[in-house]
Input
Amino acid sequence: MPLLPRANYPRAMYTITIRRGREDILRKHNSKVYSGAIAAIEPVYSGPSLARVLDADGRFIAWGSYDEESHTVLTLLSWREEVVPDDGWLEAMVANAVDNRKHLIDERTNAVRLIHGDADFIPGLAADLYGDEIRILISSRFAHRHLETVVKALFNCTKAQWISSKVDALYAPSEHLKKEERNFSRGGEEKGRREGNTAFLEDGILYEITSGISQKSGFYLDQRNNRHIVEGYAAGRRCLDACSFTGAFTLHLLRGGAESVLACDASESVLRHLLYQVNINEDRGLIPAGSRSRVAIRKDDVFSLVRQIEEDEFDLIVLDPPKLAKKRDERDGAMRGYKDLNLWAMRKIRDGGIVAAFSCSGAISRQDFHTAVSYAAADAHVDLQILEELSAGPDHPVRASMSETAYLKGLVYRVVK
Output
């Protein structure tokens, strides 16, 4: 039977044969199969549906979802022949993902990633919990087709009162999806957005995000552990939060006792929201008194900023740029970008200063990032002491068979001149 039997969902089930020599990586649980690996499909394609995937000798490999309008025409879902990925399977996968995060929620944190796409075996779907609201980001046709099943399952296994979903603009063209937003309450689908800001706690700091989904799902949950770590280096330091967005690193630097923080972003509106969040946290005693007087904002591009700042102006610099390589063919340009940012940070920071540098580009491996930072140190004529290697937290698991799920990598290093 198909994944979601309904009037507008084809009832055809396909049998797909993989070309000889292409099956080994699929047996290792890589879920993405492109058209060049497919030898035959029966019956003739008539629309997206469930597929039984075989090797050239007719042996079962996996169950998958086949959709010729998707960039990844075949997405493998279950490698056990007795486990057919129907709607019940999908609901169980959602419930399992949520259950695996329950231990991360407490009186100090009620915001976590509940579903992390391929790493949770639900391709192209991220779901983030913010207090009593869940925000879903869709990056595949598979996730788009099954949104209502996912929403139902999330309401069943959480206490969320509202769920918003948005098609990721980065993937919409290649997946042939409209950039639509949908909203759901426990009473059903709603015509408009939820009123007011969404408030939540992360590591004892209060945040508010606006209605609707902007960058990612409105916040960067993947940096939670790293913000706490960087906070430990802040005491008495003059800090630069070079890609601040709405100020999560800034708030941790202030709580850690920073002497001052300059927060920089390319958007004036997010910088104003950053100041608002500093105010509400100081008012509630969640960050030290006087924090607002220790923060300055600057609207600028990070690549321009690192060239313009004065030498020895900062003791601690946080470099958390947006994704520089969205695709593998952008890797070389991204490597130059990461090297350039770190080179200028090393040149400008005072002797013995700390840099926390990150890459969120899936096309850049951890070794690639190490290489870019090492080349920057050589050109800056400095030595580095790497103090910590960082990654996303446990609510962003890495799937061993898919290296791209280890997208976030970071280094905390001391610059010795």
User: Anything to note?
Assistant: The longest strand covers residues 383-391. Residues 101 and 395 are 6 Å apart (CA to CA). Confidence is low (pLDDT under 50) at residues 1-10. Residues 331-348 form the longest helix (18 residues).
